Amino acid sequence: MHLEKSSLDLVLVPCGLVIMFSYHLLLLYRILRHPGSTVIGYENHNKLAWVRRMVQASPDETGLALSVISSNISASTNLASLSIALGSLIGAWVSSTTKVFMTELVYGDRSQSTATVKYISLLICFLASFTCFIHSARYYVQASFLITTLDSDIPASYVQHAVIRGGNFWSMGLRALYFATTLLMWIFGPIPMFACSMLMVVILHMLDTNSLPLHQHQFAVKKRHDQRALTTAIASRQPSPQNAIISNPILSPVTFFS
């Protein structure tokens, strides 16, 4: 019976990992060859159009671009903090001598070496997630520096490269957390880990599939600038408000002070 439980970890855990890796390799192929069929490719297409518009924006519109980029930086730093906190918790579990997850409730290999492999695998996933989120914040900061360089001839491709890289590292950090979720179920046995891998692949397939067509963005920046200039000219032609006492024929200065 002990041999059968040990063999479950040797069979189900590699099968679950192979299923997860195979799905992500297929997803990578779809992103590279057919980006319109994936949510990541759809978002990258819209990000490229957004950068083209923000590069053409006037100096008073750069605040909108900075607010969008700062929100992405905040999300990346928050998830990086969460990942390193969970990694520290896993490190505390590894260094402790607790036997909580080595009880009879775990149907599988309950040896100390297998438990150590579980904790180290989780720690690697959380550290990989932390690294990806940090690099995501780094590229978004670089994009904010480039997009706020006023009166410069920086090509839009430079900003697009930084924004796309930041989004890609964000997606990689999330994928590392997905792997950590499946490995977390391994603590309770190989059967929950394999079931979680199957369920995770089904859910990710539904979330990563895009059915919307790619919109070809067209911008009329010059028209907006002309309308803004016309509004400013009309406002400048209006007479400035005068003193209410002098302009009011009823309240003349003589009757007001008398």
Report on the structure:
The protein is mainly α and 258 residues long. The chain has helices at 2-33, 39-55, 62-95, 112-147, 156-186, 190-208, 221-237, 244-247, 253-257. The chain is elongated.
Largest beta-sheet details = none
Poorly predicted runs of 5 or more residues: 243-258
Q: Please bin the fraction of helical residues.
A: over 70%
CA-based gyration radius: 29 Å
Count of helix runs: 9
> Overall pLDDT, averaged?
81
Q: Helices and strands: which structural class?
A: mainly alpha
Number of strands: 0
Strand content: under 5%
Q: What overall form do the CA principal axes indicate?
A: elongated
Order of helices and strands: HHHHHHHHH
Q: How many angstroms does the end-to-end distance come to? A: 111 Å
List the helices and strands and how they pair.
Elements: H1 2-33, H2 39-55, H3 62-95, H4 112-147, H5 156-186, H6 190-208, H7 221-237, H8 244-247, H9 253-257
